[in-house]
Structures are given as C-alpha cells and as structure tokens.
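Hey,
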Amino acid sequence: MNEIKLDNWQKRSAEHQKPYKNFLQRANKNKVLKQLPDFHEEAFSKIDCLQCAACCKNYSPRFKTPDIKRISKHLKMKESDFIEKYLQLDNDGDYVTNINPCPFLGEDNFCSIYGERPSDCHRFPYTDEDVILKRPQITLKNSTFCPAVYFVLERLIENK
C-alpha cells in the first residue's frame, strides 16, 4: 500500500471529486464493506480529530428525539428550553444547531457533551459503515472537509 499523504489533502480531495463519484457509483459493495473497518482504523491512527474539528466548526448533526431527550436531561434543561436555546429546524425538517461552530465545541476542540453527543456525531464520518456508499453525495461533501473521509476514499480507490 502506498503512503497516503495528508499534507494539502483538501486540494487533492477537490481534484479527486470526479473519480470519487465514479468509484462510489460503481463500487463492489461487499468488497468495500469488508475493507472499511481496516481503512477506518488506519485513518484514525493517523488523524487526530481534535486537531481539526472542521465538522463541528462548519456543520451541524441532526438532533433526533432521543438525542434531544438525552442531552437536555444531561444539561438539566427542559427539552423545550434546550430546543429553544440551541436548535432550529432546517429545510428537511430536522433539528440542527442554530449557530456554527457547534455551541458545545470548546476552544480546545473538545465537545462539552461528548458522552451524550447526537448519534450523527457519534457515527461521523461514516467511514466504517455503508452510509459511505448509500449516500454518495454526503460522502463527497464530507471528503472536502474531513481528512478521514479523504483518506478512506483514497485507500478504497487504491484497492479497488
């Protein structure tokens, strides 16, 4: 396996959007799903999310009902107060944060509700699950701001 360079990865990711799209459309699902755990683990052995936090700085997860219940309880707030203070409905009718960066992101890039974070945050960047193939538009978007998605896509293409 070649060493995947992470310096200047955003530029390379932007240049590789078309090959990524073609790969995601034609990928052998079973082969990809077998490779994901190893590539995911390798990516996170090289990438420290606390050095980046681009996801938390620029985008919001969906806050589903169980997330809202769990987080508002953790913060000792009424659910309605939590929603009013931190959330808004997006165009898809999902609750998302009402500001960016995420109001729970600290200056040190640590999440103040990490143990209670929304399931979308827990699962992000989906590089160890079938979302990477099932939702190619999300994968392509994520590859532009998350070095782990870039890394995994590069590995998958290299090993197709």
